[in-house]
Amino acid sequence: MHTRSHDVKESSTHPEVRDMKHGYSAGDSSETLPGGRERGPREHFEEICADDNYEVASHHMNVRGDYTVVFRHKYGGKDQTFPNISREKIESCPSRIKSRILEK
């Protein structure tokens, strides 16, 4: 069973559905970081890499030489897709993620 909340944006009549089971969804830029920069996909990628409840569902190398990585939560929820992740970024991930993506 999934817990959902509906947040109605002021400029829209359609509710935004968020998956509250895991606390955040990739691409949500609702938090401002020090220096005024908004939280974006880069921070979500780092959080998901560090979270043992996420595993790599699939990945592939793009034409430009970077990767698209899809994470799946062990207990359900939406898959989290991150396009255009550099090899350097993947090499800085925990070994369980790095070995899965960079295996030959």
Automatic annotation (TrEMBL):
Region (Disordered): 1-42
The species this protein was found in: Naegleria fowleri (Brain eating amoeba)
Name of the protein in question: Uncharacterized protein
Biased composition range(s): Basic and acidic residues: 1-22
Phylogenetic classification of the source organism: Eukaryota, Discoba, Heterolobosea, Tetramitia, Eutetramitia
